[in-house]
Amino acid sequence: MRLAQWVKIVLCLVLAALNLYLFVVSCGVEYPILVAREHVRFRQEMPTMDSWINSPFGKLKNYVFNVTNAEEFRSGRDKKLKVEEIGPIVYKIVGFNDILERNATNIKYSKHRYRIVEFLPEESVAPDVLNWTITSTNNVILGAAAKLKHTMPIVALGFDAALALEDMFVTDSVYYFLWEFTRPLLQSISRVSNIRPNVAVLYNALKEKEEVYSVKIGPEHGIENFFRIETLNNEVIIREQRPHTFRYDSDSCPYNVTGALDNSLFPPFVQPDTPLDIVAIESCRVLPLNFQRRERYNGLDIFRYTLLQENQKPPRCLDTSYGVKLHDGMFDVSQCVINDAPSAFSMPHFYGSSYNWSEHYEGYTPNAEDHEPYILLEPITGIPVMEKYRFQSNIPIPDLRGFSNRLRRFSNMMIPSFWYEFEMGQLPGFVTALIWINVNLVAHMQPYCMGLFLLVALWSVLKASRVACGDVGYVGLFRKLCCGNMGAATALETKFQATTPSIHVTVK
After folding, report:
1. What does the alpha-carbon distance between residue 279 and residue 233 come to, in Å, rounded to a whole number?
2. pLDDT for position 474
3. Cα separation, 454 vs 80, whole angstroms
4. Looking at the DSSP assignment, which residues form a beta bridge with residue 59?
5. Beta bridge partners of 321
6. Is residue 503's pLDDT more than 50?
7. 247 has pLDDT over 80
8. Which phi and psi angles does 342 have, rounded to 5°?
C-alpha cells in the first residue's frame, strides 16, 4: 500500500477510537453535571465572567413621601398624617467586582456596588422631579428624641428648649432630602463629636462600603457550595454587628456570613428546599430567601423567592430598636445607618407588617405586586434573571410622654423616610443564550450525542477497511468481508473439447 493509504487508515482508526472513548465516557456521566462542573470552576475566560465583573447593574428607583396636611396635624385639627408618594426617582446603577486573589478552590474579590450612579430624568416620574418641593417630617428631631428616650430619658426635660427653633416639618426640594439633608442641630453637634451632619438618604446609602468577599469555587467543594461565602472583610461575623454578638447566640442571629451568598451567583441545580441566604449589606444582616412558587419567565422555568414574608417575625436580636418593640414584618437596622439612628426596615407602604398604619396615616396603598421584594432564579444554572429588591426605611418612635406636646403627637408611630427598589437590568444576550442552551439542549442532548459517537466510530472503521482493500466501494467491501477469497475466484466456467473436422482426400 502507498503511504497515503496508510495515513488515511491511521486517521480513520484514531477518529473511531476517539468516538468510542466519548461514548464510553458518556455512559458514566450526565452532561448537565459535566457542564455544571466546568461552570463552577469560574475560569477567567468564561463568557459569563464579564457580566459578573460589571455587576450589580440595573436601576435604583426611589420614592419619598410628601405630607399634605402638616399645618393641620401641627395644630391638632388632624389626628393623622396625610401622605402622597412621590416617585419613582430613577438612577442607573453599575457596580464592579475586582478580583484580588484566585486559585482552583477560592476567589477573593472586592465588591463596589456604585461605580456608576446616573440620574435618569426620562424614566423618573418627571424630568424635573428633583426640583419639586415637598414637606416631610423632621426626621432629625424625631430620631434624636427616640434615641434619647432610650439612652438618656432625663434629657427630655430640656430637649424642646434646645430645639425651639426647629419645626417638626421641613419643606424643601426632593434633591435636598435625597442628597443634602442637614439641620443646624446636626451641624453644631458634628463640630464637637463624630456625628455626621448630612443625613440625606441617598447620600449615605450610596456611599462606598468595604466589601471584600472570599467565596468557594471549583468542584472540589461540591457544586452545591459554589460561591458560598467563607469570609466577609476577613471575618465570619458582619463587622457592624460584632459588638452585639455577646448578647445573643450567633446561630440564632443572622450575623454569620459563612455559607451565605452575595446575591450575584447561586449554586447550580437549586431545589425548592435548598437553603439560600444572602448578605444584605445595607441592613448588616443575612437574609434567608423564601421559596414562593415556580414561574415562567422569558421562556424559562424559574423559581421565585421572597426576601420577607408577610408578618414574618424578626429574629430576637433584631426585634427591638432603641427599646421600641418592632412589629412583625420589620427588623432593626440601627447599627447600619448614619449616626446609629433608630431605624427599622419593612416592605414598602408597610406591606406585610402587623403595624396598623391606618391609625396614624392616610395615603398608603400596600400590595404585593408593587411592594413585595423578590428574586427570580433559574435553578439549573443558579443565575438570577430578575430581581426587585424593595425596602422601606422607618424611624420607630416610642411613647414620648415627658416631651412637649408637639413631639407627643408622634408617639408610637413608624415614620417612613423613603423606600427604594433596586431592579436588576436585563442579562446580556449571550448570557441568556447560554442559560437557554444549558436548560433546553444540554439536559436532553446526551442520547443523541451518544448515538452520533457510535455512528461516527462505525463509519471510521468501515472507511479504514475500504482504504485497506484498495479504496473499494461498500459493495466490494461487503463481498470481501462476507465471501473472502472464494468470492473472487469462484465462477462458472464451461469448457468445451475442441473438435477438428476430418479432412477426407479422395484420390481418383
Report:
1. 12
2. 66
3. 78
4. 92, 423
5. 324
6. no
7. no
8. -60, 125
Distance CA 189, CA 113 (A): 31
Per-residue b or e along 66-91, where b marks 16 or more CB atoms closer than 10 Å to that residue's CB: bbbbbeebeeeeeebbebebbbbbbb
Residues in the chain: 508
Q: Which of 382, 368, 225, 345 is closest to 292 using CA atoms?
A: 368
Confidence at residue 477, expressed as pLDDT on a 0 to 100 scale: 65
Cα separation values, 66 from 136, 137, 362, 417, Å:
6, 9, 12, 10
Q: Which residue has the cell 477510537?
A: 17
Task: Tell me the one-letter amino acid at 87.
Answer: G
Tell me which residue of 421, 477, 432, 467 sits closest to 205, measured CA to CA: 421
**Do 139 and 50 form a contact (C-beta atoms < 8 A)?**
no
In terms of pTM, does the model score above 0.70? Answer: yes
- Amino acid 287 reads L
What pLDDT is recorded for position 505? 44
What φ, ψ does residue 6 adopt, rounded to 5°? -65, -40
Residue by residue, DSSP assigns 311-354 as TPPPPGGGSEETTEEPPTTEEE-TTTSGGG---EEESGGGTT--
What dihedral angle (degrees, nearest 10) is formed by the CA atoms of 399, 194, 138, 171? 180
